[in-house]
Structures
1.
Amino acid sequence: MNSAGSFAPDYAAARALFVEAAAAAGGRLERLTHPERGPDGASLSCDVAWFGPADAPNVLVTISATHGVEGFAGSGGQVDWLRRGEAARLAPGVGVLMIHAINPYGFAWLRRVTQENVDLNRNWIDFSAPPPRNPGYDSLADVLCPAEWTRQTRAAAAAAIGAYAGVHGPAALAHVLTGGQYGHPSGVYYGGAAPTWSRRTQTAILDNYLRQARRVAVIDVHTGLGPWGVGEQIVTQPRAAPAFRRARAWFGAAVTSTFDGSSPSAPLIGDGLAATPALLPWAQVTPMALEIGTLPSDQVVWALIADNWLHARGDPDSPIGRAIKANTRAAFYVDTDDWKGMVAAQYLLACRQAVAGAGRRRGGGRAGEPDA
Ligand SMILES: [Zn+2]
């Protein structure tokens, strides 16, 4: 089987492949319609498929397109897993919940963000409290989203970013730029002012499908960070946290943490994986991001800054708009068979490790036996 055939050229084709493969694998499907439409006017949805017994205590949850345009990889991994017949090989007591395109708007429009211009992985904060402040971002906000996108304004943005890094260091720059901001709705890495449709939908899905679950592994597929084709396993928990230690035991010693500089990801505010245990207080939750590298990180960040400008101030249907959209797609999806093969293989391995881990008990016992 050629894994490249599991990857689709756009959101609509990805959804069709997923629904077809999930139905063929005997999945129980549910369609959750999104309030907006894609660039072609077609409807959008998050699609959910359940495999295994409805009362399964051990569950693997996989999520694609948390960051919209990154959904090419996550969807391809999900479809490949289905086409390989993995659903028929689940052990007794194991279920798999596949969430396809939790941010279908971003996937269809080739944007990392939701229809609210929100980075879904900065949106999982408590909005009843004052949002976190990011004064560093405040100082860069205007230059990052100028009125016009010209050689001069791009140079000014690059100079401002370089000056910030020169004074505060590259780690501080990464933190203010990508760590999340709540003061500039038309800026990059904006966390929003309320829970987005995608967050509300994900919350409802987990609540609807996982009431019976006792051990839950979550794999959320991302792209755009790290070396080309390499799947980094990131846990957004400190190393001392039980969830981090479980992830290491299941996935191996290469698991990194956003808390100690071992991951190329800056420490995040409001990411969905860190929020998941509180949504499932009756279960032991082990969340992990599988982050597949694409292009060098400065190219990825500039693609995002340009895309943000385009949707805030420009015209996506202009020549420069089409060029920016092509750059955004290329920054998060490498359209080659070797890269897709690397995604599919690492995704398959992570899913098998998670299924085995969620079904394993401390002391080496099997699921159903009492904890050591
Ligand atoms: Zn991502």
Note: The pocket of zinc ion is lined by residues 67, 70, 222 (CB under 6 Å).
2.
Amino acid sequence: MGSRSVVVIGSGIAGAATFFALARRGTDVTLVDDGAVGQATAASAGILQPWSSAIDGPFADLYVRGAAFWPEVLARLAEVGVTQTGHRRSGALVVNADPAAVDAAEERVGRRRAADPDVVGRVERIGGDRARGRFPPLATGLDALWIEGGGRVDGRTVRDALVEAGRRHGGRTVTAHAALLDDGRVRFGDRTEDPDAVVLAGGAWTNDLLGSLGVRVPVAPQRGQITHLTLPGVDTTHWPSVHPLSHHYLVAFDGSRVAVGATRETGSGFDPRVTAAGQLQVLRDALSIAPGLADATILETRVGLRPLADDTMPIVGAVPGHDGLFVATGYGAAGLTMGPLLGDALARRVLGEPVPELDALHPTTSPAAG
Ligand SMILES: Cc1cc2nc3c(=O)[nH]c(=O)nc-3n(C[C@H](O)[C@H](O)[C@H](O)COP(=O)(O)OP(=O)(O)OC[C@H]3O[C@@H](n4cnc5c(N)ncnc54)[C@H](O)[C@@H]3O)c2cc1C
């Protein structure tokens, strides 16, 4: 039998997507968030382009399936009139000075396109000059691959869209810090509730919630700094994301905005600051591939704490030994892409359906330190 009442803790993409998926299935669901500084979703670049990734195996498969689910979740949001999502299928450019590197990326994208040609769209080797036509600040001397289906979402807008759509399906939202009690109840604000199920989607903070039970999951914060630039008078709305086959990227947004980043600071702890070294790294990387951004105005640097899992696979499912307790964390650098897919799968699992695709993501716990 499915659970009747559920509390979801955390309204980043993991919790917001689970909340929406539960609410649209008629569940009595409450979403609680404490507005912590450093929410990963609020800082995310929001790029939806998994196909050029050099990683193969289960993570890559999930990443690709996550991107393929986006049209479905957008359609479900539209069913309740939520259409402002910050999503745009603006295409992606894979660029590199070494044509052999672009060859290898073209092979990977072509292989993944064969499984889902509609989502990936047209893939074409266009060379550097045509790439600059699509993203004018790019350096000369680059080879380039165009991927029509590359997309991006604004993390803040889509998070709010999922929450609003969940509300329109009858879900409730509360702003408060939540704590799990050792008897399985959950406390937030001045309320203590005893729901049929609790979903911990606390991102990098998930182990704080599990501490009262004396267990932890293998996840830790990884700081990401990303700088937003504006190019006054330039319309960047239809510019693609740019992937130099390195650790960094550029992504344009509607208006005159380009975000460049991001740092991946493993071991950062809970320290959501803009640092001198982080700022230097993202700007140096960006200008090395797109020197035409040199005169852009710096708007802000956003900082998010990615919930990074030890073995990089997300951790999604029932917490062993704790009836009615579920976790959704460890989405690392791919949470915007995978979040809606995993939220939908977890909602089905919470409601008692067998969900084989979650088997590989089953949480393992160890005793909490101290
Ligand atoms: C700079 C940067 C760029 C990124 N770019 C991309 C990208 O291009 N594509 C992509 O797919 N992914 C990207 N990501 C990754 C993606 O943003 C994350 O994987 C994802 O946002 C994680 O979502 P989450 O919901 O697990 O965690 P968060 O978004 O961190 O949300 C967790 C929430 O839980 C709340 N919370 C925690 N504990 C409690 C408590 N006790 N009570 C109440 N509330 C609580 C927090 O306040 C927070 O709001 C990027 C991340 C960063 C930082």
Note: The chain has a mean pLDDT of 96.
3.
Amino acid sequence: MNYEVVTTQDGSNTLYSKQYNQHYHNIDDGAVNESLHKHVIPCISFHKNEKSLNILDICFGIGYNSLSTIYYVKKNNLDIKLNIYSPELDESLINSLKDFNYPKEFDFLKEIINELSTNYFYEDENLKIEIGIGDARKYIKKFNKDFFNIVYQDAFSSDVNKELWTKEYFDDIFKISNKNVIMSTYSIATPVRLSIYKAGFEIYQYIPVKRKLSLCFKEKQDFIGKYIDMELKQQRNKEAKPIYD
Ligand SMILES: C[S@@+](CC[C@H](N)C(=O)[O-])C[C@H]1O[C@@H](n2cnc3c(N)ncnc32)[C@H](O)[C@@H]1O
């Protein structure tokens, strides 16, 4: 086995990857809490008046970001049709998810989890989810320009998962993002922010609970968070460079 199950602070289980030497979620924040506070709540709140959302979940892993999105929309009775697209390299992990011990919040999602774990696809009148088995870099090339309203950027960190943090990768993400896109990521590292900025995004710092995160937009806005002036950051830190392929 390439991973070990670990119980996090909020009681929900995550995995430790022996291949990447990293946890799938922050143990101290809790897997469900992390997913809700770092990704789902800021992004869905930003789009709470939309009737339909196209969401890119990078990458599926054990699926907390996708599953917490469905949970949050249902719990708050939001009338939003969700179309979720999520690449994942690790097919055997997806196949194992029907037996994963998920938190009680996800009990009502059992049928959806079984379908995704077996067929990589689920659809009903309010929800469509597709898991794209394979490399995310290839997967994102199939989408039309301006398609996504939300991007959850939740790869392993750039030192071990570099291909999902480069300027060229974010160029592709920028192309397939709508002008109203919001992209959430736990990373606040300057090289990562420079990669995102050089691809065309504006960057804001937001503190949902205790840890800072980055929210990224195509257009400047006054939604939440503090605007990060990346030009100024670069002037002050001449050594700082974006990550390139
Ligand atoms: C930090 S985990 C994602 C956690 C996930 N959001 C969740 O809630 O469980 C990163 C995931 O990215 C996958 N991954 C890493 N590089 C990838 C790539 N180039 N293409 C597709 N998936 C990749 C790993 O297999 C792993 O499952």
Note: The CA atoms of residues 179 and 218 lie 6 Å apart.
